[in-house]
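Action item from last meeting closed. Structure (188 res):
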C-alpha cells in the first residue's frame, strides 16, 4: 500500500502543470501480455512528455521532429499530442507496412532527427551536422519494446546502428517521463 501511495504521489508531482500547459499521465495496473495483463503493482505507464533517447559512444541523442520555424520541447518525439501507449509515437512513424521494425528510411521520411546533447546540457538543434547520421540507423526493433515498472516508469527499445565494417551494433535506448521544466531546459 505504501508503494502505491509513493507511486501516485510521484506521478502527481511529475504531472504538475506550468501556468499555461496541461499534463496528462496514465496509471496502469498490469503489463499487457499476449492473452492477458500480467499482474503488477500500480505504476504509471506514460505521460504527456516521454522523450526517446539514444546514447551511442557516450553521446546522448534525443529523437525529435525537424522544424523550419524553431524548436521547442514539443518537437521531441513523445512530447506532443495525446497517446494511448508509451511507444505509440514510434508506431506512428511506421510507413512501409512492416510493423516489426522501423527503418532509418522511415525515420528520415517522417522528418525525425537524432539531436545531440551538447556538453552544456542543451540540445544542438541548430547544428544538424552534429546529429547522429540517420543513414547509420538500420532499424528500431518494434517487436521487442519493453516497459519497466517503478515510481518513474520507463521503456526500452533497441536501435540497430550500422558500424564501419558493415555489421550492426545494438544500442539499447530509452523513453521515460520527464517534467516539462526539465525538457524546456534542454533548449537554450
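Sequence:
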Amino acid at each position: 500500500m505504501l508503494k502505491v501511495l509513493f507511486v501516485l504521489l510521484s506521478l502527481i508531482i511529475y504531472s504538475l502543470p506550468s501556468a499555461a500547459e496541461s499534463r496528462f499521465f496514465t496509471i496502469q495496473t498490469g503489463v499487457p501480455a499476449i492473452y492477458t495483463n500480467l499482474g503488477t503493482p500500480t505504476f504509471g505507464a506514460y505521460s504527456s512528455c516521454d522523450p526517446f533517447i539514444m546514447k551511442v559512444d557516450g553521446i546522448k541523442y534525443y529523437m525529435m521532429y525537424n522544424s523550419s520555424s524553431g524548436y521547442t520541447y514539443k518537437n521531441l518525439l513523445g512530447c506532443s499530442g495525446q497517446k494511448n501507449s508509451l511507444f505509440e509515437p514510434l508506431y506512428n512513424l511506421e510507413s512501409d507496412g512492416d510493423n516489426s521494425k522501423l527503418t532509418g528510411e522511415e525515420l528520415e521520411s517522417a522528418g525525425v532527427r537524432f539531436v545531440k546533447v551538447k556538453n552544456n546540457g542543451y540540445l544542438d538543434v541548430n547544428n544538424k551536422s552534429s546529429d547522429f547520421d540517420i543513414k547509420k540507423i538500420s532499424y528500431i526493433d518494434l517487436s521487442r519494446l519493453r516497459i519497466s515498472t517503478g515510481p518513474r516508469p520507463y521503456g526500452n527499445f533497441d536501435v540497430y546502428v550500422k558500424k564501419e565494417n558493415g555489421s550492426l551494433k545494438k544500442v539499447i535506448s530509452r523513453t521515460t517521463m520527464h517534467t516539462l521544466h526539465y525538457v524546456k531546459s534542454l533548449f537554450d
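Note appended to the action item: The two ends are 42 Å apart (CA to CA).
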